[in-house]
């Protein structure tokens, strides 16, 4: 069934590409596109079968994201982050899952995980307040996943929790006006003293320990994967997809272009252009192959009922951040060798360059800190991090 979704997504790519410039200008993915993606089954790929999802192989989901991102980086980004949220909600208590999917299987969710909100204890749950930034796709969401700190009696934080809040309790503030990923509508969201019942909360400690209450309900291998692997790969996949799509466009555009300097001649006959294409394509291939290998090994271990070793979790994060780094190196090569044509704001090369660099500043792409975690593990030093 995942193959059916991939086929559906491929059918949508020409239309998504045609709307890419308009998406940037609107600063939000259109309702038309979101409806098409919903109908394609994309947002059900990581959703439990119990609630109408496909509960499929995560590699198929990341492939779908890369395909979409190749046509429009902003649409791919929104598809990726909104597509992973059903997977996370599957880790919440059963009562939460029952509540969310009581309206049907095509409920959409956005998020902002930074723990900038404050939770205060209340009878049966918490009172939540805060303002969060970078909530991609929030204009289309029915629910929002928001990070918050539990404030203890002394006024100090005592826990880090992800909460789930209905759209009716959230104010969206239109602030998104950026140089890259312009069409993601990653606006600010505000919650003002809203009650969150206990069943709509999940401790981040449970993420890293793979012990969420939802795993007692959803026992398939997909829900035994670490949040630190699934979510961070969700961030790198659209970056890689945007660059891979740009590479394809670049080759097509440059094949017949004539140089206006350096003696003229066809661009494609310049050995430096040939080397540039070789380097860029190898960088993208290496990133995709490593990331798919790691997620595939994790999924195979979970499917066999084996524990996922810390070595593999660390390697997955290592290759994920280096995947983003390789994507940036590849797009920089293409941007530089494309010449003046890459400077136009609406060009595919310019847009992919801006989108890839914008995606790279996400906290999940903190290269040096993540590589240091891998090095600690290699040297036998205990690693404790929520994104491993």
Question: Quick gist of this model?
Answer:
Helix content is 49%, strand content 16%.
Structure, described:
The chain is of the alpha+beta class and 388 residues long. The protein has three domains: 2-103, Acyl-CoA dehydrogenase/oxidase, N-terminal domain (Butyryl-Coa Dehydrogenase, subunit A, domain 1), CATH 1.10.540; 109-203, Butyryl-CoA Dehydrogenase, subunit A, domain 2, CATH 2.40.110.10; 225-378, Butyryl-CoA Dehydrogenase, subunit A, domain 3 (Up-down Bundle). Helices cover 49% and strands 16% of the residues. The chain has twelve helices and seven strands. It has helices at residues 2-18, 20-26, 31-40, 58-71, 73-89, 94-100, 204-208, 227-254, 271-303, 310-337, 348-360, 367-378; strands spanning 109-122, 125-135, 143-151, 157-166, 171-173, 187-197, 201-203. Strands 5-6-2-1-3-4-7 form a seven-stranded mixed β-sheet. A hairpin with a 2-residue loop joins strand 1 (109-122) and strand 2 (125-135). It starts with a helix and ends in a 10-residue tail after the last helix. The mean pLDDT is 94.
Question: What string, H for helix and E for strand, traces the elements in order?
Answer: HHHHHHEEEEEEEHHHHHH
> Radius of gyration in whole Å, from Cα?
21 Å
Using the coordinates shown, work out and report the CATH topology of the largest domain: Butyryl-CoA Dehydrogenase, subunit A, domain 3
Q: Sketch the major β-sheet.
A: 7 strands, mixed
Our measurement of the CA-to-CA distance between the termini, rounded to an integer number of angstroms, reads 30 Å
Query: Can you tell me the CATH architecture of the largest domain?
Result: Up-down Bundle
Query: CATH homologous superfamily of the largest domain?
Result: Butyryl-CoA Dehydrogenase, subunit A, domain 3
Q: Total strand count, please?
A: 7
Basic shape:
globular
Helix content: 40-55%
CATH domain class of the largest domain: Mainly Alpha
Total helical segments: 12
Average predicted confidence as pLDDT: 94
Which structural category fits the helices and strands? alpha+beta
Q: What is the strand arrangement across the widest sheet?
A: 5-6-2-1-3-4-7
Q: How many structural domains does the protein architecture include? A: 3
Low-confidence stretches: none
Strand percentage: 15-25%
